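Reviewers of the previous submission asked for a worked example of the structure-prediction workflow described in the proposal, so we include one complete record here. The input consisted solely of the amino acid sequence. No template or homolog information was supplied to the procedure at any stage.
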Amino acid sequence: MTGPKIIFFILAAAIVVFSILSIFSRRILRAAIYLLFVLVAMAGLYYMMNFQFLAAVQLMLYAGGIVVLIIFSILLTSQIDSKLQAPKGSHLLAGGITAIAGIALSAITILQFTFKPSQENAVGTDMRTIGLQLMNTDVQGYALPFEVISVLLLAALVGSIFIAQKKKV
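From that input alone, the workflow returned the following structure tokens.
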């Protein structure tokens, strides 16, 4: 087995293990830290595929920005010592059935789709082309989806802080 394969399996195992730990952790802060490890391992996979820009964005935006915001929201709302309630058996069963159905639907869709090579020219991966695509609002641009996602994340963060605040008596 070659070195890149070993590194790939280590990163894949880290993603699977820390994802499971993030889901099943009953402590909020530990779940956020496990999520951070998942995002860093994903950046490692992007780097292995020679997507250095995407790896850098993954580290800066998700691992660096969003997880830090989640951790600060946990610390600001004084929820660091709180434990989540154990899920009910019916909720676990419903979640398991939903996960299995999602995996089956994804597998069926991927296996039935016939992948054809594109006739279009490849888009360049230099920094100038990526920067222009990020600022573009046309069909190939990413400015509008980025703004919509940023508003959605802000609303989710404000909502989570509102829900997590202790009730005043």
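Residues 52-76 form the longest helix (25 residues). We consider this example representative of the routine output the project will generate in years two and three.
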